[in-house]
């Protein structure tokens, strides 16, 4: 008889063998306790401002966007004023943002369509939102979720990465597949905040290059940790701290 010896990470009590239902339950419970009030880090005071900020945030950090938008909102406090703006003036205000040329055109096109087609009111549904220049499904879901409190899951690079690593999604090849899998498993009343949970976790803990598993509370449920990172992180944590060697030259300088 041949016995198959499995690696330690296949232990029954590891996250690897959790069912998806168990994994979602663990993750949701952890976030409820540790990040109950998660919200967008973009600064805004009304739907128009959030729409501008989200358009600018594509492939750009929220920090950079928040540094840029105050000048825009000071000069163009309403969508009607932005709709009448000159392209070069808007570009000058957002030139530090990635893809400033395209985003300038998107902002002006969006503003004009909002005024002419939607009576200056930001739509409350995805179909109408994606009709606006510069607005894709992710941006539309942010607006319907944050502004209108709808159960919409905006999938950006952080949500896509974190969901796959933890094992919340299975073989999702694109943001839409990720969105559908998450929407099917997360209770409707938690979808909006879950979007922020996953974004913030990906931004500050489960980062792209080297996730900070040492400080992550989701390790027990995380497939990526159990199968890949566990045997990198645990030896590092157990290793004795390296003593800092001070050279004779440094001692002499301080003296």
Strands, helices and their partners?
Blueprint: H1 20-34, H2 47-57, H3 62-75, H4 79-83, H5 87-94, H6 100-118, H7 126-129, H8 137-146, H9 157-166, H10 175-185, H11 191-204, H12 223-238, H13 248-254
Give the number of helices.
13
**Structure classification:** mainly alpha
Shape: globular
Could you name the CATH homologous superfamily of the largest domain?
Answer: Helix-hairpin-Helix base-excision DNA repair enzymes (C-terminal)
**DSSP strand (E) fraction?**
under 5%
Q: How much is the radius of gyration in Å?
A: 23 Å
- Which whole number gives the mean pLDDT? 88
Give the total of domains: 2
- The count of strands amounts to 0
From N to C, what is the helix and strand string? HHHHHHHHHHHHH
Which CATH first-tier class of the largest domain would you pick?
A: Mainly Alpha
Poorly predicted parts: 1-13
CATH fold-level topology of the largest domain? Endonuclease Iii, domain 2
Features:
about 260 residues; 2 domains; Endonuclease III, domain 1; mainly alpha; 13 helices; Endonuclease Iii, domain 2; single chain; disordered N terminus
